[in-house]
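Ticket #4471: structure export looks truncated?
Reporter: QA, pipeline team
Priority: medium

Steps to reproduce: submit the single chain below to the structure queue and open the exported record.
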Amino acid sequence: MRIVLVGPPGAGKGTQAAFLAKNLSIPHISTGDLFRANISQGTELGKQAKAYMDAGNLVPDEVTIGMAQDRLEQPDAADGFLLDGFPRNVRQAEALDRYLAEKGIALDGVLDLEVPEEEVVKRIAGRRTCRKDSSHTFHVEYKKPEADGVCDTCGGELYQRGDDSEETVRNRLDVYHRETEPIIDYYKQQDLVSTISALGPVAEVTQRAMDALKKPAKG
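Actual output as written to the record:
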């Protein structure tokens, strides 16, 4: 299957993408991984992306599209893929459609993970990260540490990262609504969208997504 996963920050796209890709035996292709791989390998596109990022600028669509197309050319993506974070806007969605049309293939579905905005703010702004090991994360409501402000694993101090602040989260949501959300309507015109609730246990959300993929897409 060839799938695009869409949803606001905090919807759990990365988690769901990993589970869905495993269940469907297709590669999970995320924009973050594309950037990291190209930069670490020193590819021409990676060098271009790094230059923009180092200057504090957004990476242009052309560079992101080029990275995605290069990745889709890899053998493991021949029989399907799950795209997470790409396309980010309608221009990238149109470029993806043109690329797939040239290959004589098409998307099978677009999964739109839906979560209320205030829940997004609560999920992200409530996160606390260990200063000693950033892989140790907790939440003031959903995953409380045994001792307030102290990592259960290593005893490090827990803090709120700058990009987890409520102000930053709301800014990210504004960018999502302005740039990425329009691709949902774009794909609805192709009858590809299935909107599912991203609330509840991870396994339940994954099952909703799997069920949606078995049925004709609906907005």
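Status: closed, not a bug. The export was complete when the record was re-opened. Leaving a note from the reviewer for reference: The longest strand covers residues 109-114.
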